[in-house]
Amino acid sequence: MNEFCPECGQRTDIEVGFYYGAAYVSYALTVAISVASFIAWYIFVGISSDDNRIFGWLIFNGLLLLILQPWLMRIARTIWLSFFVKYNPRWKEEPPAVAAKLLVEQLGAAVTVNS
User: What is the pLDDT confidence band of residue 106, given thresholds at 50, 70 and 90?
Assistant: First the structure.
C-alpha cells in the first residue's frame, strides 16, 4: 500500500498496526458475500438434504472468496481508513494536515539515539 495517496498526498500509514482493524471490515464483507452467494445458490441450484449440493456451494464460496481476496483486502483498508480520515471536498486547495511522523523504531528500523 502506498505510504501517501498519489492524488492528494494524505498519509495512509497513520500509525503502526493501524490496519489491524481492517480485518473486522474484511470479515463483515466476507460474511455479506457468503450470505449473498448462499442465497443465489439456493435460488438457482437449490439446497437439499438428499444430495451433496451444499458441498458444491461450500466449494464455490471458498473459490469465490479466494478470487476476491485481493479486492476484499484493498476495499477493507479503504473503508477502515475512511472511518478516521474525513473527506475534504476542497482537497486540491487545502492539502492534508501533516500527521505526526511515526517513530522509526516503531516501523522496525534500527535507530541510534544520541543523548
Answer: low
Instruction: Compute the Cα dihedral for 65, 71, 73, 78 and give only its sign.
Output: negative
The reply to whether 103 falls in a domain is: no
Query: Do the domain assignments include residue 9?
Result: no
**Domains identified in the chain, total number:** 1
Task: Give the domain extent around 77.
Answer: 18-88
More reliable by pLDDT, 110 or 39: 39
The arithmetic mean of pLDDT across residues 85-98, rounded, is: 75
51 pLDDT more than 70: yes
Residue 76 lies in a domain: yes
Q: Are 54 and 47 contacting, i.e. CB atoms less than 8 angstroms apart?
A: yes
Q: Which residues touch 36 (CB under 8 Å, ≥6 apart)?
A: none
- Asked whether residue 32 is domain-assigned, the answer is yes
- Positive or negative, the Cα torsion across 68, 70, 74, 76? positive
Of 67, 85, 87, 83, residue with least CA distance to 25: 83
Q: Which three cell numbers stand for residue 91?
A: 482537497
Q: What percent of the chain is predicted at pLDDT more than 70?
A: 83
